[in-house]
Design goal:
GO terms for molecular function: hydrolase activity, acting on ester bonds. This is GSCFA domain-containing protein. It comes from Epilithonimonas hispanica. It is built from nine helices and ten strands. By secondary structure, the chain is of the alpha/beta class. The chain has one domain: Rossmann fold. A hairpin with a 2-residue loop joins strand 3 and strand 4. The longest helix has 19 residues. The radius of gyration is 21 Å and the shape is globular. The model has no long low-confidence stretch (mean pLDDT 95).
Length: 316
């Protein structure tokens, strides 16, 4: 007898190697995946504009990175004593315009260089909703907790969704490696503040737009992350206390499913050893001068040296 519906990710013909670069962008689930890559010491860059959720804003970010845009002070607004970019997450806000701009432009330059060597891109859409900043008639990525009266909220149309996704694909195929694999996902995090019905409609619009946009396109794929959470792990024991975000057990399950489909065996071994090293490095002692503890550290350092020999990029 079966008591659950197991969802699998199709095995990829092209695998992620230990020297590959992986770029991720989108909702907070993109960050969860990035953290897993980083812990495994795989070269990874995530969300150079901060966490953003809708396809229009994600495409805008990709376009600015592609163009190597240099933001100027007139691209910012001053609100709540902070200089703000409505294209970016609030983590870029600063009381000083030059600090906001320095952080924004440094990330764009870094992302532009990283993408040129990237073989895998993971894009995680969170919502079909978008906000328009009324004073400038501008569609924005983040409202930065500004008063609601300054914004109009609406769904992106199907044409806006597919147009954004298609442009994103074109930009990435031009700036990345020739055979870049573009992997689209829909975040399993439910936007319950929009309403349960509204959230379901929002996710459905995303899934429809992705499938229509990638149909017949080479090296573009849909990863069923949303389905893994909603069907395979359809139990609240796989959620954090807020009953919205996947917990660490769920993230690990999805990560293993992804790895089985996209990692070389060598990559799995490399990541597994690095995870063990991190666990060992997190071990604490009350007496760090103890000879046995020093011997323990020496053994860990030797393991790091052996791992470093396998790759050109700096690890740990």
């Amino acid at each position: 007898m079966k008591f659950r519906t197991e969802v699998d990710i199709n095995v990829s013909e092209k695998k992620i190697g230990i020297e590959d670069c992986v770029f991720s962008i989108g909702s907070c689930f993109a960050t969860e995946m990035h953290e897993k890559f980083s812990e495994g010491q795989i070269q990874s860059l995530n969300n150079p504009f901060g966490t953003i959720f809708n396809p229009y804003s994600i495409n805008n970010a990709i376009q600015q990175i592609y163009d190597a845009k240099e933001y100027q002070e007139n691209d910012l607004i001053l609100a709540n004593e902070n200089y703000i970019s409505l294209d970016h997450h609030s983590s870029f806000d600063s009381r000083f315009s030059h600090k906001s701009l320095e952080n924004i432009n440094k990330n764009i330059e870094e992302a532009n260089q990283f993408l040129q060597n990237t073989g895998f891109v993971i894009i995680t859409f969170g919502t079909s909703y978008i906000y328009e900043f009324l004073p400038k008639n501008k569609l924005v990525a983040n409202c930065h907790k500004l008063p609601q009266k300054f914004f109009a909220k609406r769904f992106l149309s199907h044409q806006e969704l597919t147009g954004s996704i298609n442009k994103t694909i074109d930009f990435l195929k031009d700036i990345c490696k020739n055979d870049v694999q573009i992997l689209f996902t829909v975040s399993p995090v439910r936007h319950t503040k929009d309403g349960i019905i509204e959230n379901q409609l929002s996710k459905s619009k995303l899934i429809t737009a992705i499938h229509e946009s990638i149909l017949g396109k080479e090296n573009c794929y849909y990863l069923p992350i949303y389905e893994l959470m909603m069907d395979d792990l359809r139990d609240y024991r796989f959620y954090k206390d807020d009953l919205i975000h996947p917990n660490s057990q769920a993230v690990q399950y999805i990560w293993e499913k992804f790895g089985n489909a996209y990692f070389f065996d060598e990559t799995k071994v490399f990541i597994n050893e690095n995870n063990k090293i991190i666990t060992a490095l997190n071990h604490k002692t009350e007496d760090d001068k103890n000879p046995k503890y020093q011997e323990f550290l020496d053994k860990i350092n030797q393991r790091i040296v052996e791992q470093q020999k396998k790759v050109k990029h700096k690890i740990f």
